[in-house]
């Protein structure tokens, strides 16, 4: 094999790596679900793809990004945990939750019912299973607020409302910490038994829950 041919192969490999890095940085990234905070929508062992381009392009090695669109209520997003040193968690850990409030929305939870600007928000993919209602002075789980979502921030909750560490406990998610929108499960298995593959979850889309006001 000639030096010229080797050089051509080397260039092809380098170009392929660069394209893959650009694709991962700006377009789509894979994540896996480690916990049950988004059950039943997402379960431990699900591997998902996240659209990183939909909300904006993050400029590498800076805190700047070029906005493309804004997150909407009901979308499932991946973001970096926004608070350093709180709750024994490091800033930058990947979280996944559903958007419940966008800038300017007034959010309140009354006895397991979520209200947005005074209107009940129903999401068929989210659920409370506990038969015990916790008062606001005891926990923000079942009764919370009202709070108004600040500019350029979001209020997020897990679909497993009984067991999700989310905005009820630690506050809002700044736009700058959003990675992207989760849109599909491409692989799934039991994390405790890798021979137990969840074939029925392959290529399953991740559903949204748009906010619709109840009129009448």
List strands and helices in order, with pairings.
Elements: H1 3-26, E1 28-32, E2 46-51, E3 56-58, E4 65-67, E5 76-80, E6 94-101, E7 106-110, E8 113-116, E9 119-120, E10 144-148, E11 153-157, H2 167-170, E12 173-174, E13 178-190, E14 193-197, E15 204-205
Explain this structure.
With 216 residues, the protein is mainly β. It has one domain (3-205): Umud Fragment, subunit A (Ribbon), CATH 2.10.109. It contains two helices and 15 strands. The chain has helices at 3-26, 167-170; strands at residues 28-32, 46-51, 56-58, 65-67, 76-80, 94-101, 106-110, 113-116, 119-120, 144-148, 153-157, 173-174, 178-190, 193-197, 204-205. Strands 1, 2, 5, 6, 11, 12, 13, 14 and 15 form a nine-stranded antiparallel beta sheet that branches.
């Amino acid at each position: 094999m000639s030096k010229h041919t080797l050089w051509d192969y080397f260039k092809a490999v380098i170009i392929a790596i660069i394209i893959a890095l650009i694709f991962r940085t700006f377009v789509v990234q894979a994540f896996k679900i480690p916990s049950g905070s988004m059950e039943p929508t997402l379960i431990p062992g699900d591997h998902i793809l996240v659209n990183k381009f939909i909300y904006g392009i993050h400029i590498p090695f800076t805190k700047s990004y070029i906005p493309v669109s804004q997150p909407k209520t009901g979308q499932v997003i991946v973001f970096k945990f926004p608070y350093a040193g709180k709750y024994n968690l490091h800033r930058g850990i990947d979280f996944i939750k559903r958007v419940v409030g966008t800038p300017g929305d007034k959010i309140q939870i009354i006895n397991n019912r979520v209200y947005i600007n005074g209107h009940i928000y129903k999401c068929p993919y989210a659920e409370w299973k506990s038969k015990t209602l916790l008062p606001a002075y005891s926990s923000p789980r079942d009764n919370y607020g009202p709070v108004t979502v600040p500019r350029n921030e979001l209020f997020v909750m897990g679909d497993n409302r009984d067991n999700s560490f989310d905005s009820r406990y630690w506050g809002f998610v700044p736009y700058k910490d959003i990675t992207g929108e989760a849109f599909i499960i491409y692989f799934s298995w039991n994390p405790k038994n890798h021979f137990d593959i969840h074939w029925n979850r392959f290529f399953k889309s991740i559903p949204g829950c748009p906010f619709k006001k109840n009129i009448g």
